[in-house]
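task queued by scheduler; priority normal; single chain, no ligands, no partner chains; default sampling; output format set to structure tokens
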Amino acid sequence: MKDSQRQVDRWRRLAQWLCEHGDVKIDGYGPLQNTVQNFKSAMCEDLNVAGAIGFLSEAVSNYAVDSVPESGCGCTTLRDEYNALLEMDSVLGVLNLCDTACTDSLDVSKIDCLIEERLSARENKDWSRADEIRDELLAIGIAIKDSSDGTTWTRIVQ
């Protein structure tokens, strides 16, 4: 069960990354767009969900979501890749993606400022203020994770 959740989390991180870099042009079709037909074929083959998920996972593995994508000279964008992921998830229904998820703008500087303020509140042991900031971030669709390496945030894709 944990492996399945990790896999879905990887797909969600990719969806977020594709949204953040949606205007980046790529050469030709991307891995997700190239996978849609194989995904559909697997699902039509006696409802081969495992095969369909295998195709999707292979396509997702082609992305390094911790890096900034290089822009190509094609007319396809990472937004098109997001749409391919959206199409496959419309069958699986595990990501709860919607077509408007990429159109919402993020104020990254505001998020970073709130995280810094929260870090300061935590250092000063002002737990109620730290919780307020966490709740404020959640209200705008941002989940935070504290670790020994610091605080990271991800957009909650619904």
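post-processing summary
- The longest strand covers residues 142-147.
- The chain is about 55% helix and 10% strand.
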